[in-house]
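Encode chain A's predicted structure.
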Amino acid sequence: MYTIACTLAATTSALVLWGAAPLQDAQTPATTSGAPTASPTAPPPPGSRPTIAELVAARKNMSDLLKRAESSEVSDDDRAAFIRQVTDLNTWLDRNADPAPVLERIEVPKSVQQAGYDTVAGIQRALADDGARLRINYDPGQRVVTIAGRRWEVTDAREQIEAALRELEVRMRDEAALALKAATVELDWGGGTLEQLVALIQKQSACNVVFATPSTRLVDIPPFQIRLVTPEVLFQSLNILSANGTAPLMVEVVKETEKQSASDPIASKTKPVIVIRQRLPELRHALHDLGDWNGADEKGIASLVEAIDFAMQNAGSAELVSLRYHEPTRLLFVKAPADSIALVNEIVNTIRTRK
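Encoded structure for chain A:
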């Protein structure tokens, strides 16, 4: 038993050369009904060498046999048989594989610099688990992977790492494209109300929009075309787009401060609130003396105020118009933007002169 243990230890030491990971608990214990009868990998035909795939398969077979030999569930006879097969496989590898050590470098694409570290580390663990005699080092700062070991193992490791990095690069590029599309909007806007524009944008990208006043929803927005613009930037551009219109807008984006986002993982994932309001026009005052109007009774005044309110609602400026009627003096006080004052004057004169 002592001799078997020493042989197992010596063989295991050979496998962990070049930085391979130490062996773990057995994953596939053998039965104790007898030693396996599998023979080592057959020698290649005269004048030829085995392929890298065949060498890798032999190495994996040898690593599996060692793990089974370490199991406490196998008999001494089985353990001895496993070690004999490991020795035969090791001899076969030394005879048929180029043992000359080589050093190769792989440049990691900048786009996968950080994620590439985990990818290389995963391949390194898998190779060590299969008994590879390699040393793999990744310098994220230089974006270089260095592989040292036997030529055939280095070639196998390089091919795996290069293939994994190519796949990672494609996946990250696709994920970035999807993230960009989800965070931006593309529109061929033919014109309409602000409320219609917001509804169209929210179909493409999740955004929080608040109208400061109901009339803001009805502001007309002229046609435009945009590509790959975030909702925040688009709505802020309405400050300029509506500057020369009859209902200019003010847009404010409220979001977490950088300090809050850095200290709070929830705050870093929240979306800002976009508040849209109309710029308040200059308000003017008007006064109407209804003392000589025969219809200036309770019913007549109510009808007059209702007509003015209907007109202001239709014009989208009801929130900006204030009406007060002083019954003792029969005076109607009006406070509103200049264009609304003109419309109120027209309505009052029309109703007063109606027969």
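The chain has four domains: 2-96, 101-183, 201-278, 283-352.
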